[in-house]
Amino acid sequence: MAANGSHEDAGRAQPPAPRAVATGGGRPGTERAQDSRRLGRELAMRAIYARDVGLARPLEVLAHLAREEDAPREAESFARELVEGVAGHLAELDRRIAAYARNWSLPRLAAVDRSVLRLAVFELFHRPDVPRAVAVDEAVGLADAFGGEESARFVNGLLGQLVRDLEAGEPRD
To answer: In terms of DSSP H, where are the helices of the chain?
Structure first.
């Protein structure tokens, strides 16, 4: 969402840098793997955003961002899987998002929100290794870090309804 509260793009050429980037910081075991995935999602969302606004090819952006962030190999690899997955399922993801974006057409959504939602919906439907709650929580965090004032609330509401319908076996299409 734009800073003025609308879902129309604020004209940003790229999403702002997040307030903090989790890189693992020497934490052992599971926490480090989770941090690597969190960074991978951030990198993937930024690459998906760049594609959405026509800046560059997403995998080139991803490679650049991974170098810039000094991302661990696991984070970059996970991000690549997400970017390729979103690209490969884009029409389906957009259809699913549009079914839940009440009173908003997909083009009217802020590009950051659209990118975050594409990533989350891809994880919800195509990554059985990612728990639904994690996909939603991570998306809300990305929306909060990169989007406008109301982005996190909007993303949480849309994904919350989608997950409730998915768990009831009745997702909108």
So the answer is: 29-52, 58-69, 73-88, 90-100, 111-126, 132-146, 151-167
Measured in whole angstroms, the distance separating CA 149 from the mean position of its chain's CA atoms is: 17
Domains in the chain and their CATH numbers? Answer: 25-88 (no CATH), 89-173 (1.10.940.10)
What is the rounded CA–CA span in Å between residue 4 and residue 129?
37
145-168 pLDDT per residue, tens = 999 999 999 999 999 999 999 999
- What is the value of pTM for the model shown? 0.82
The SS3 call for residue 170 is coil
- Look at residues 91, 162, 87, 56 and name the one whose alpha carbon lies nearest to residue 79: 87
Q: What is the C-alpha separation between 110 and 97, in angstroms, rounded?
A: 13
DSSP-assigned letter for residue 57: -
Rounded to whole angstroms, the Cα distance separating 150 from 112 reads 12
Is residue 153 a contact partner of residue 76, using CB atoms and an 8 Å limit?
Answer: no
DSSP state of 106: G
